[in-house]
Design brief:
Number of strands: 18
Helix content: under 10%
Number of helices: 0
CATH topology: Porin
Number of domains: 1
CATH architecture: Beta Barrel
Strand order of the largest sheet: 1-18-17-16-15-14-11-10-9-8-7-6-5-4-3-2
Shape: globular
Strand content: over 45%
Distance between the termini: 31 Å
Radius of gyration: 22 Å
Length: about 325
């Protein structure tokens, strides 16, 4: 039993060891499949499944939902080192509700039409950009006649730059329709993530992350706000402990590697905060944690990581698959 005054929490960010009963989103990306068609032409198929759930609240007034999207793309591989692609997508937002009622949050479906390119721009810089149009339509109850349709510009940008073999940067931007609930069936968000990784020595690594929804006045579902707290961010706090429109995270690890093929250990320190506005981010408002962990791994992956972290809310035990960063 933990000593008096010690709070034990368990984090399972992969969602496979423990079931976190706190309100949550579970997203699974279906691996993209590629099929060679003809010389330089490739067919790609991919998608995502997303489940939104609340704690002990059946239906939750039309807020819980099951979502999925499917993307089909045609890729032409040029001789210049980059690909040109066109992509068609279908997405569906299905709100869980009592089907015997004649009202509630309506389901949503829509289509995306995008074109773009991707490739290795230089030896160390890779870039993918897609832009186009997305349509959205609500599926109200048959007798209501209140269906709503809309369309907008959408875009996705993925950027990776390897400054050296030990220092790299990632940028990801997406503008798209997503679920909303709470009376409104859908909303449009602009989400941005920037990552910086520094492997200063073989044993010592640093990571920084900035996440933003870009518009301080945009309506963003609570579940899609940047969050901190989990087995890979603030490890001394439960999953998704902190949420707001902007999130900043800094992490450091010192690793001891007794066996490169099977085992390593690490001492770590995490610090971060979330804020409603970027100008509200301040170092004196950061929350902190520190701890120690053990990782069981092979040459290519880490099937099990066990860590114990200490934060302001007590001790936190982490079970996860994959490296923290």
């Amino acid at each position: 039993m933990p000593a008096p005054g010690v709070c034990w929490n368990v984090s399972d960010p992969s969602g496979v060891i423990f079931l976190n009963r706190v309100s949550r989103v579970v997203s699974t990306t279906v691996p993209k499949m590629a099929f060679d068609m003809a010389k330089n032409w490739v067919l790609e198929v991919g998608g995502q499944i997303q489940l939104v759930r609340f704690e002990d609240q059946p239906y939750s007034d039309g807020q819980e939902n099951n979502n999925f999207n499917v993307d089909v793309g045609i890729v032409y591989r040029t001789s210049l080192g980059f690909d040109v692609l066109g992509q068609f997508g279908y997405y569906n937002i299905n709100y869980l509700r009592d089907k015997t009622l004649s009202n509630g949050t309506p389901d949503v479906f829509g289509y995306t039409y995008r074109v773009g390119f991707r490739g290795q721009i230089t030896e160390r810089l890779s870039l993918e950009g897609l832009a186009g149009i997305a349509t959205v339509e609500t599926d109200f109850f048959p007798a209501s006649g209140n269906d709503i349709s809309d369309s907008t510009f959408v875009a996705n940008v993925h950027f990776r730059y390897e400054a050296t073999d030990k220092i790299n940067f990632f940028l990801d931007f997406g503008r798209q329709y997503v679920f909303n609930g709470f009376g409104d069936p859908y909303t449009l968000i602009n989400a941005f993530t920037f990552l910086a990784n520094f492997e200063l020595t073989e044993q010592f690594s640093l990571r920084g992350r900035l996440q933003s929804t870009l518009g301080d006045s945009d309506q963003v579902p609570y579940f899609l706000l940047p969050s901190l707290g989990s087995g890979s961010t603030l490890r001394g706090y439960r999953s998704w402990r902190f949420r707001d429109r902007h999130g900043l995270l800094a992490q450091g690890e010192w690793r001891w590697i007794p066996n490169r093929m099977a085992l390593d250990m690490a001492f770590f320190y995490d610090a971060g905060m979330v804020a409603p506005r970027l100008d509200a981010v301040a170092l004196d408002r950061f929350v902190h944690d520190f701890g120690v962990g053990i990782r069981f791994h092979g040459p290519l992956s880490t099937p099990l990581r066990v860590e114990i972290a200490r934060g302001a809310e007590g001790l936190h035990l982490v079970f996860a698959a994959g490296a923290a960063f």
